[in-house]
Every structure is written in C-alpha cells, then in structure tokens.
Amino acid sequence: MSIELRGVWKKQGSFILGPVDLAIRKGERIAVVGPSGSGKSTLLRIVAGLMTPDRGRVYIDGRDVTYEEPWKRGVAVVFQSPALFPSLTVLENVVEPLLSKGVAKSEAVQRAREVLQRLGILHLSARYPAQLSRGQQQRVSLARALILDPPVLLFDEPLTALDPPLRGEVLPYIYEASRGRTVVYVTHDFEEATFIADRLVVLMEGKVA
Question: Hey, what CATH topology would domain 3-74+150-208 get?
Fold first, then answer.
C-alpha cells in the first residue's frame, strides 16, 4: 500500500508539526530521522490513526483515511516498549490478534508458530514475557504485528530501549520481516535508518528538512 500525506499540520502545546507533504510508494521502506522533539513520533501516530491532524489529509492506497479508525487502515505498529500481555505466554500473545478476528484456534496456533519460527523464537512459546530478555520481548511484539500480515508496518523507535548488542540481535529480524511491505521506521539513529530504509526523511523542528 502507498501512503501520502498532504499538508499535514498538527499543534501540540508550543510545538507544531508541518505542514508535511510526503509520498511513500507501495513496498518502499522509509526511515524518519531527526533529533528528539522534531515530530517523528507525532508523524507516525498520524499515519497510524492514533492521532488526527488539525489540517491536511492522510491517504493510504489512494483512500482518504484522515479520520478513519486505526484498525481499518491495514497497518501494524511496533512501539519502543513491547506491547505484550504479561499473563499470557508467548504463543498466546501472538495468537490473540487472530482469535479476536474470529480465526479458528487451530489455524491461529499454526500461523502463530510459523511466525515465531521465522523470528527465531518458537522455542520460547511457553514462556511468559517476564521470562524473556528485552530483545526477545521485542521480537514477540514484532510477531504480534506480523500475524495479521499487514501491508504497512510502522515502527516507533523500536530499539531505543535496547543495549547495542540487543539492537544488533533484533534489527536483522525487523529487516527481514519488512520485505515486500511499506514501512515507516522512526528513529534518531542514522545507522539503524540506513540499515532498514530505502530512503531517509529528515525532520527538523516539525518540518521535512
């Protein structure tokens, strides 16, 4: 799916994002980079539907989704902190999005095991989030994002909380998982950005520099 922002503008307190005009081709991986407070996460949340712009329009695959709910957009988001249910095992965490869509449990478990295998964490299926390293938790979070096979993946500084060795562990899995998908990867780390992305978009003080 392609993504297009036309004249997107958002005011938060004294900070203003925009106006931003940005076109992302279907299957293109872009990284949005810039210092803290430059508007990177705000931009991503507007694409995801977690925030509505004050002005401007958001299009996904040519369809105006500016005021559409996140779950209707065909996007999945991986945040800085892994969004996992502490009382569920790894397998149960990954199965849950499918069950909520009405997929039969046997099929959901099979698909979840395939995704976990691809991310190298199938052997952790019976563990709980508290029993995992931070890097493993982030891979489970990625599995939850992938299980519905979204055409668009959005990453909001997914490796910021990890030590450098763990970043090196998780980054290749993100790269492989994003093949063939449209990706917006928010980071302040240029090394991560150049590893993941086809194109860099630099934000400075709320504007594309």
Answer: Rossmann fold (3.40.50)
